[in-house]
Specification:
Blueprint: E1 13-21, E2 31-34, E3 46-53, H1 61-75, E4 85-88, E5 95-99, E6 104-111, E7 140-146, E8 152-159, H2 165-179, H3 206-209, E9 210-213, H4 215-219, E10 228-234, H5 236-246, H6 255-267, E11 277-285, E12 305-313, H7 314-319, H8 322-334, H9 339-352, E13 356-359, E14 369-374, E15 392-396, E16 405-411, E17 419-425, H10 427-434, E18 440-441
Parallel strand pairs: 6-7, 11-14, 14-16
Antiparallel strand pairs: 1-6, 2-5, 3-8, 3-15, 4-5, 7-8, 9-13, 10-17, 10-18, 11-12, 16-17
Helix pairs in contact: 1-2, 5-6, 6-8
Length: 449
C-alpha cells in the first residue's frame, strides 16, 4: 500500500478563473439590513468551511463548476444578504448589510497534487492563499479546487456579520437542495429581530465577560503563540469512553462536556508556570432558548451566540477527576443556556452601542484560555451538490491573530459517531494532545482516500 507523504513545499495551486454570481431574481430595489445586537458580538471574523469530494463518476470539473454557479444564483434569491455588501455606517461606525445583489465570488483553481497528498493535519500549509481565497469586497466567497486525481475541494468563506454556524448550515443545505432540484427545507428569516427591552437591563456580571471594542482592536490583537492550525480525527470509542469517565453518581454528562473536561485537564500541562489560573469557554446558540420553543428562531439567519466561561486554578484542575471538571463545564454552560441570559446580553449590548463587542476571553484578556464550539448539527455527509457526498466537512480558519485557543467539533462524514476537530492551538498544547491516542492527526487514510 502506498505510504502517505503529504507534500508541503511541493503543494501549489493555480488560480484559473473568477466569477461573480448574482441572484437571478433579486429584490426590486436595494435594502439596508441593520445588524442586530448579537451580530455586533460576532467580531467580523471570516468563517470558512472546507469540504472534500472524491472524483465524481459522471461529471467533469467544468460541468460541476457551472452547476454550482447556476444553483448558487438560484439560492441567492432566498438568501439575498449573502450577495450584498457590508459597509460601515458613517454615523454609528457599525456595519450594515447593503442588499444590492453585488454578488458572491467563485474562484476556480487547480492543485498540482492528488487529493490523498493534501496535508489535512497541518492546515497552516494548506489554507491561506491556496485553498481559501479571501477578497474583502465579498462577504461570501467560494473556491472550487480540482486535484490531479480528479478529486475536488470546496471552501465556503462567510463574513461573520452575515450569521453564525446555524445560519450558514441552513444556507449550505438549502443550496445543496437546489442543486439536487429539491424544494428548500428552510424559508430563511432575515429580519434580524432580536431587539432590546425597554428599558434595557442586565446582570452586572456581563461587564466582567464582555467588552466594547473596535475592528482595529480585533484585527490587531497582541501577538501570541496561538498559531498552530490543526485537524484531528477522534473515533467514537474514545468519545464514549470520555463520556463514561465524566458521568458518575447517576449524573450523565454530554459528550461535549466530557470532551471539554479531557481537553481542559490536558491544557493545564501545557501553559506557562507563571499562570495560576486558566479558562475554558463554550459557544452557545440561543435558538430555542429566546422566546420559548414556539418561537425557536430555527430559520433565523444572523448571529444568536453567546459565550459561557469557567475559570479554575491550575493546581485544582491537575488534582480533581475528569468527572469533577465535566461538572464545572456543565455548570458554566447551564448559566448561559436560558432565555434570561440572552435577553440580558442583548440589553447589555444595547447599553454599549454604537460599536462592536466581544468576549474579553476571545480578545486574549485574562490569561490562557480555550474556547470549544460544537457543530454537531452542522451538515457534513448530506452536503451533496449533485456530484456525491463529501468525505470530509470541517470548519477551518484563516485568522492570523486570535486571543484564545479554539476547537470546533463536528460529526465526521463516516456517520459512525466519530468526530472531526479543527483547532487553533499553541505548540505546547498541540504536543500534549497528540501525546495521547485520542487526538489522531487527520490523514488521507482516515478518510479512506
Amino acid at each position: 500500500m502506498e505510504v502517505e507523504v503529504p507534500m508541503h513545499s511541493q503543494f501549489h495551486v493555480t488560480f484559473k478563473n473568477t466569477s461573480i454570481i448574482k441572484a437571478i431574481n433579486p429584490l426590486s430595489k436595494p435594502q439596508t439590513l441593520s445588524l442586530s445586537n448579537l451580530d455586533l458580538l460576532s467580531g467580523r471574523f471570516p468563517v470558512t468551511y472546507l469540504y472534500l469530494y472524491r472524483k465524481p463518476q459522471a461529471h467533469n470539473f467544468a460541468s460541476i463548476v457551472e452547476s454550482l454557479k447556476a444553483s448558487l444564483a438560484e439560492i441567492l434569491n432566498h438568501y439575498y444578504p449573502f450577495a450584498g455588501q457590508i459597509i460601515e455606517n458613517p454615523d454609528t461606525s457599525e456595519p450594515e448589510i447593503i442588499c444590492n445583489n453585488k454578488g458572491a465570488l467563485i474562484v476556480e483553481a487547480q492543485a498540482n497534487i492528488p487529493l490523498n497528498r493534501l496535508d489535512l493535519y497541518n492546515l497552516n500549509v494548506s489554507l491561506q492563499g491556496k485553498l481559501v481565497s479571501i477578497d474583502p469586497n465579498f462577504p461570501f466567497q467560494i473556491q472550487v479546487t480540482k486535484y490531479t486525481c480528479g478529486g475536488i475541494s470546496v471552501t465556503f468563506t462567510f463574513d461573520h456579520a452575515l450569521g453564525d454556524a446555524s445560519a450558514f448550515g441552513k444556507f449550505l443545505v438549502s443550496w445543496s437542495e437546489i442543486a439536487q432540484q429539491k424544494p428548500i427545507s428552510c424559508i430563511p428569516d432575515h429580519r434580524r429581530k432580536l431587539c432590546a427591552r425597554s428599558p434595557p437591563t442586565y446582570h452586572p456580571s456581563l461587564n466582567q465577560t464582555f467588552v466594547k471594542c473596535t475592528i482595529e482592536e480585533i484585527i490587531n490583537m497582541p501577538p501570541n503563540n496561538i498559531t498552530q492550525k490543526r485537524l484531528y480525527f477522534i473515533d467514537a470509542t474514545s468519545i464514549n469512553r470520555l463520556q463514561t469517565l465524566a458521568s458518575v453518581n447517576g449524573e450523565k454528562r454530554t459528550k461535549i462536556e466530557a470532551f471539554s473536561a479531557y481537553v481542559w485537564k490536558t491544557m493545564v500541562t501545557s501553559i506557562d508556570e507563571s499562570h495560576e489560573k486558566c479558562k475554558m469557554g463554550w459557544l452557545v446558540d440561543g435558538r430555542g432558548r429566546i422566546h420559548g420553543e414556539q418561537n425557536s428562531l430555527s430559520n433565523y439567519i444572523g448571529n444568536v451566540l453567546s459565550l459561557a466561561t469557567a475559570e479554575a486554578t491550575v493546581t485544582e484542575l491537575k488534582q480533581i477527576s475528569i468527572s469533577d471538571v465535566a461538572n464545572m463545564a456543565h455548570q458554566a454552560i447551564s448559566k448561559v443556556t436560558n432565555e434570561a441570559h440572552f435577553l440580558d446580553l442583548i440589553d447589555w449590548i444595547e447599553c454599549h452601542r454604537p460599536g462592536l463587542m466581544l468576549s474579553k476571553t476571545v480578545l486574549g484578556r485574562g490569561g490562557p484560555a480555550l474556547v470549544v464550539s460544537s457543530g454537531r448539527r452542522f451538515p457534513v455527509a448530506e452536503l451533496d451538490f449533485g456530484f456525491g457526498s463529501p468525505v470530509l466537512g470541517t470548519a477551518c480558519s484563516t485568522i492570523e491573530r486570535i486571543g484564545v485557543g479554539y476547537m470546533n467539533q463536528r460529526q465526521s462524514a463516516r456517520g459512525d459517531g466519530s468526530w472531526t476537530v479543527s483547532a487553533i492551538l499553541w505548540p505546547e498544547l498541540a504536543a500534549a494532545l497528540e501525546s495521547d491516542s485520542i487526538f489522531q492527526p487527520m490523514s488521507a487514510s482516515l478518510l479512506q482516500l
